[in-house]
UniProtKB/TrEMBL annotation:
It comes from Streptomyces roseus. This is Hydrolase. The keyword Ubl conjugation does not apply. Signal peptide: none annotated. Its cofactor is Mg(2+). InterPro entries: ADP-ribosylglycohydrolase, Ribosyl_crysJ1, Ribosyl_crysJ1_sf. One of its GO terms (molecular function) is metal ion binding.
Length: 316
């Protein structure tokens, strides 16, 4: 069993819940349309199977455990390739199929990653979707959070926007941990604090726009303005996911319902929001029915106990 800091485990668990919850909605929305979300009926059991978002987050957490909070890029690249080879049907993006197969075949990861998209590297959201537990783990040192988030991103996504997206999510998770035990920060202040830690970029601009949105902005409008992952890029995913998380830092369940309502790349937006919110709240407030429905984490990852009592009624 891996020994994880409590906040990192909470973040990983929240990420997995968001990932699995969001992933189930792809099929429901195709069959029933957006009106299915209005009923707030959770996806049917079983199984809420998590995707590559969680698979890669588990790899990253194992790497942090071995490196005592630091990322060895060479080792992480091999770990990601090995995890992919062991289970290729987790919804990996097309470019990641190519990258991880080639790394697994022995090609140098730096050359493989740098050669993507005509030498620009991928600016997808894959490095951001897995990184929240890292931010929770290293929350005491925001400089280390940014450094290690960027280091883990470069192993698969070295485009500056992808790296900045990963740093943004990691910093948000760290700030969520730091707010434990006190009142939740207001959305503008929380997002403003994230933006302050980012270099000039489209991701930073998106986070700053999110921070300035009016308190009663609808999910639909936020998704239209910020993007909700339809392009599966860092700039098109991270600002919206963090806007959702920042507005629900005391309520993981509501945060996931609100995030999925923006549609787009919903397993990833929900994974990011879930990882950030749970870094503050943990996952014990989720209904036991959700816990029963979601695929368990691997055996070496400890699980948090589900909530009981009126707040955890099945189906709530």
């Amino acid at each position: 069993m891996i020994n994880l800091p409590a906040a990192a485990l909470d973040s990983l668990s929240g990420l997995a819940f968001g990932d699995a919850f969001g992933d189930r909605w792809f099929g429901i929305l195709r069959r029933e349309g957006p009106q299915a979300l209005e009923s707030r009926i959770p996806p049917p059991e079983p199984l809420w199977r998590w995707s590559d978002d969680t698979a890669q987050a588990v790899v990253l957490v194992r790497e942090l455990a071995e490196g005592r909070g630091a990322v060895d890029q060479d080792r992480l690249a091999l770990r990601l390739a090995e995890a992919y080879a062991g289970d290729t049907h987790r919804g990996y993006g097309a470019s990641m199929h190519d990258v991880l197969r080639r790394i697994g075949a022995g090609e140098p990861w730096r050359e493989v990653v740098a050669g993507q998209f005509g030498g620009q590297g991928s600016w997808g959201n894959g490095a951001a979707m897995r990184v929240a537990p890292l931010g929770a783990w290293l929350a005491a040192d925001l400089d280390a959070v940014a450094e290690q988030a960027a280091a883990q991103s470069a192993v698969s996504h070295h485009h500056p926007e992808a790296v900045t997206g990963a740093v943004a999510v990691a910093v948000a998770a760290a700030l969520a941990v730091r707010s434990r035990g006190g009142a939740a920060p207001a959305r503008p202040e929380f997002l403003g604090a994230v933006a302050e830690r980012l270099p000039e970029s489209d991701v930073r601009s998106g986070v700053r726009i999110a921070a300035r949105m009016r308190p009663h902005t609808s999910v639909r409008h936020a998704a239209q303005v910020l993007g909700s992952g339809y392009r599966m890029s860092g700039p098109d995913t991270v600002p919206y996911a963090l806007w959702c998380a920042a507005g629900h830092l005391d309520d993981l369940r509501e945060g996931l319902w609100r995030t999925v309502a923006g549609r787009g790349d919903i397993d990833t937006t929900c994974a990011i929001a879930g990882g950030v919110i749970a870094a503050r709240t943990g996952v014990t407030g989720l209904p036991p029915a959700w816990r029963a429905a979601r695929e368990p984490l691997p055996p070496d990852i400890p699980e948090r106990e589900p909530a009981t009592g009126p707040a955890g009624l099945p189906g709530a």
